[in-house]
Design goal:
There is one protein chain. The protein contains two helices and nine strands. It has helices spanning about 70, 90-100, and strands at about 1-5, 10, 25, 30-35, 45-50, 55-60, 105-110, 115-120, 125. It starts with a strand and ends with a strand. Mean pLDDT is about 75; it is low at about 1-30.
Length: about 130
């Protein structure tokens, strides 16, 4: 999937399907947000925005959040908070893929308030064909 804007800049991404999500246009030409209500009353926010030299994608929730000592280790291979239910490879692999594409993944979390992951990927100028 090629994500584009009215400008001549783009980012490449894998095929993504977000069917049935309520879309709310946030008032900017290159900024979109989706909110999902969880059965427990919490919310998940998914958003995108274009910046001068990068494209940004984020996922945030109003869940349990994470303490600082967990945040410090979440990108380590095999680190998991899920016990036997997790391998500890998901965030480590994601971090590696994003870094190899000259991108960044950041996390902000506070216990009891939720977590936000933000991914920034560099944009490039498309070659006219």
């Amino acid at each position: 999937m090629l994500l584009t804007s009215n400008r001549r800049y783009s980012i490449l991404a894998g095929r993504v399907r977000l069917r049935g999500l309520p879309e709310t246009f946030a008032g900017y030409p290159h900024r979109y947000r989706f909110w999902l209500r969880r059965p427990d009353g919490g919310e998940i926010e998914i958003g995108t925005r274009a910046e001068l030299d990068s494209a940004c994608f984020w996922v945030a929730d109003t869940g349990r959040g994470m303490p600082p000592e967990t945040i410090a280790r979440i990108f380590e291979p095999f680190y998991t908070t899920k016990g036997e239910g997790g391998t500890g490879l998901g965030l480590s692999a994601s971090h590696g893929i994003i870094t190899r594409h000259q991108g960044k993944i950041m996390v902000v979390s506070e216990p009891g308030l939720g977590t936000r992951f933000e991914i920034r990927l560099p944009i490039y100028e498309m070659n006219p064909q």
